[in-house]
TrEMBL record, chain A:
NCBIfam families per UniProt: crcB (TIGR00494), PRK14228.1 (NF010824)
Organism: Kribbella soli
Binding site for Na(+): 72, 75
Molecular function in Gene Ontology: fluoride channel activity; metal ion binding
Identification of the protein by name: Fluoride-specific ion channel FluC
From TrEMBL, chain B:
Protein name stated in the entry: Fluoride-specific ion channel FluC
Cell location: Cell membrane
Keyword Manganese included in the entry's annotation: no
Organism of provenance: Kribbella soli
Chemical reaction(s) catalysed: fluoride(in) = fluoride(out)
């Protein structure tokens, strides 16, 4: 039960932070490319990569609160997919393909980077 | 033909810059939804764990189901329930955004690659993207068709 509450607490913070960050990024970039969602997904992947790399050093409760709860809610697959389909339907097909490619490449790169950093710190 | 926002979480073109940037009611709805979505994702993962080196079926299903639901929701809020101000923040940005996850998807792939399961990693990478995009496309089309049929 305590574990579920930790996940809930993380989700309670992560989801509105995605909205606030998305809004802040969009207000600065007047482009069709969904930079807001792209940014939160990359940052969330970086943090989760760091946590996973430090899994032996950090308590499981931190993983649940920050990893499963916060990073899970900060990042989103539904918005990412919906945006991609909307770009595709609006004939911005290059941007749709670019969004998928860039999100996956940058998201994966962030996970590897985050894990490498935490392993360098704790090993 | 553009219909509704591109970004289902925030679209300043649609929401308008005049709207208060940080409406506490909207933020509260998103937070409550995010908590519910994250808890549901955690419970699905507990009941359906992925063994080390195994194909992360539960995360794939969570992400594809969440994508199917956002397709239905977005057509409903842009075409039918246009006056429900909190529906999209609560269900779309909150519940579905909190339920689906990009970070776990990326970490799943990294774990499979570092555990020398590159084949499974690639299969998981591709099936999630294709499944998620097809789910959105299918539910958006089906919901639009259903609305057109009902209002004919």
């Amino acid at each position: 039960m305590t574990r579920l509450l930790l996940v809930i607490a993380g989700g309670l913070i992560g989801a509105p932070l995605r909205y606030i960050a998305d809004r802040a990024v969009q207000a600065r970039h007047d482009s069709l490319f969904p930079w807001g969602t792209f940014s939160v997904n990359v940052v969330g992947s970086l943090i989760l990569g760091f946590l996973v790399g430090a899994s032996s050093a950090l308590p499981h409760d931190v993983q649940l609160l920050v990893g499963t709860g916060f990073c899970g809610a900060l990042t989103t697959y539904s918005t990412f997919s919906y945006e991609t389909i909307r770009l595709y339907e609006d004939r911005a097909r290059f941007l749709a393909v670019a969004n998928v490619t860039a999100s996956i490449v940058a998201g994966l790169g962030s996970v590897f980077l985050g894990a490498a950093v935490s392993q360098a710190i704790w090993s | 033909m553009p219909r509704g926002p591109v970004d289902s979480d925030v679209d300043l073109r649609v929401d308008g810059r005049a709207q208060r940037a940080y409406d506490p009611v909207i933020l509260g709805a998103i937070a409550a939804g995010g908590a519910i979505g994250a808890a549901a994702r955690y419970l699905v993962g507990l009941g359906w764990p992925t063994p080390p080196g195994g194909f992360p079926v539960s995360t794939l299903v969570i992400n594809v189901v969440g994508c199917g639901l956002i397709g239905i929701l977005m057509v409903l809020v842009t075409d039918v329930l246009t006056r429900q101000r909190l529906l999209r923040p609560f269900l779309g940005t909150g519940v579905l955004g909190g339920f689906t996850t990009f970070s776990t998807y990326a970490v799943d792939i990294q774990q499979l690659v570092t555990g020398r399961h590159a084949g499974i990693a690639l299969l998981y990478l591709a099936t999630t993207v294709l499944g998620a995009l097809l789910a959105v496309r299918a539910t958006v089309s089906a919901t639009r068709a259903l609305i057109t049929w009902r209002t004919r």
